[in-house]
Structures are given as structure tokens and as C-alpha cells.
Amino acid sequence: MGVFTCKDAHARRFRRWVTPLLAACLAAAPLIPSLALAQDPTRLTLMVSGTAKMIYLPATLAQRLGLFRDEGLEVELLSQPAGVDAESELLTGFAQGVVGFYDHTIDLQAKGKEVRAIVVFSEVPGEAEVVSTRLPATVQAMHDLRGHKLGVTGLGASTSFLTRHLMAQQGLSAGDYTMLPVGAEHSFVSALRGGRIDAGMTTDPTVSRLVRNGEARVLLDLRTPEGTRAALGGPYPAACLYLQTEWLEAHPDLAAKLARAFVRTLRYMHTHSAEDVAAHMPADFRREHPELYVKALAAALPTFSTDGRMPDDGPPTVLRVLAASNANARDKHIDLSRTYTNRFVDQVRERR
Fold this sequence. Notes:
The protein is of the alpha/beta class and about 350 residues long.
């Protein structure tokens, strides 16, 4: 049976301290599997780049619906607010997979690491650039943020990649603004409310809450296909499940089980109402405004994939965006065919 776990601050600090040591040990002995996996290969840990973020809802929903269990898996979900931290847990062997942004597969290949997305949740980032209502109404576009402090979940996180690209589109360089890592959800709200940042990129339900409370307004919206294409020039596959390629090739049966659980989850999301889906979420996800959560979820559900496949024109768009702020992605040859596979989700479709 799946276990939902969100480590507290002390546990996160411990993992940040122990991660470099563990990485060194793995580098010295890369063929030693984790003890838990060696004892029971059906027990898996997935890092989620923020379990409460609506863009990663399929992870929690799959668990709450018992779909991992249906596949004979015991899956533990651990939450990290920034994708860059989640990928670190994957590379050290602490986790078998990450529910995060697809762009990390490209970034990691540029660094000599091989990971592959096997289920794509959506073709939109699901992010929005929000600006504090303390700023004057003359701030109407990204170029108006010159000289301001912009919040991202983490440096090297997908929000930082997107922010760099969107500012570069306006002719602004990294020196024209300050980018601060402030995490997500509570920490993002606190940073905006306390004036540490003037604007920033975050997801629902945080965006909807800030707007409802009159603390922020949306400057640029990447939560819809139309807004995404207008800003980024095409579909932008973002939230997905990605695994280390070496692990994937060694455990294709387990990868297939994960893919089936997630595709079944996506189908559920398209055949049930927002109220039905929200009812399965932990109460703290909905917080003090459950009706606002349901409204935001109703708007988000149509943007989720029905089959988990990577769109053909998605990876080139992501590479182009990433190259704007990542010299490795720009200067090195990236083989996009090695960053994802539709093999496992196609197997699910064939079994219908």
C-alpha cells in the first residue's frame, strides 16, 4: 500500500547534508543497489517537485486511488519544492524516479547524465508570473520587471529556466534583474508578502490564492495552451515522470507498472469532475478555500494529457527555451530522442 510522506524541515536539511556524501559513495561503487530495492524491488520512492502543486496532482491522485497498489507496487512519495533538489535525490540513488519538469532531462544530458521521461502529464508548464499588487499598474509585461527581484523555486529549477528565457525575449540579461530562490507554496507567499520578491513564477493553487487575496496579479500566464504557445512558441511538455536511463533499462517491468498507474490516473482525471478529483486530495491541499481549489482544478484538468505521450513538437520547444539560459544545452549536442520514450505509455494504450 502506498505511503504519502512529506519530510519535515529537519529531514530535508539532513538529506541536503548527506546527499554529497552519498553521491561520493555511489560514484565509488555505482553498481551497488539500494538496500530497500535489493530486498523488495516493488518498493519504490518517487521524488515530487512539490506534492501540493496542481501540475503534479497525478502523483498524489494515483496513490490515493490505489493505482500503484493495483500494479503490485508500494510507492512512497516524497516532496521537494524545487525540481533541482528532486533530481539530486534521483542521481544519488535515494529515489527511483522524479515527478518533475521534462526540461531536467535535457539539462542533465548536457551534464553527462542520462534520464528519460516515460509519462508526460501536460503540454503546458502550468506556471504563471505573478506580480505584487504593491507594484504600480504600469508594470504590464515582463520587460517592466527590469531592476526588480523575481522569485523562483530554486536556482537551476525549471522556474529559473523559464524566467531567464522570458526575460531574454525582452532583451534583458541576467544583470538587469535579481532572481531569488524562494521555494513554493507557503515560502513563496511569504517572500512576496514580506517584500523579499516583487514578482515570481509559481503554480496553482498558489496563483489563485494570491490573486483572490488581492496580493498579486497575473502578469504572464503559462497555465493554458494558448498562453504557452504565445509566450514560448509551441507546446511545452513539463510535468512528467522521469527515471534514470540505467535503472529504466534494468527494470522495464517496474517502469511499465508505473506508466500504467499514471495513464490510468490521467484517464480518471478526464472522466471525473473537478469535485470528484479534489475529494481525493489531502485536506491541507485545499486549505481554507476549498471552492477556490476546485475552481482552479476545473480550469487545469483539460490541460492534462489523456494518454501520457510526448508530443512530437514538444522537446524542440523545450530545448530552445532551455538554451536561452543554459550554455551547456546551447553549446553541446543534445540528442532529444534519449530524453524521453513513449514505449511504456503506448503499451498501455495497446492493452485497452
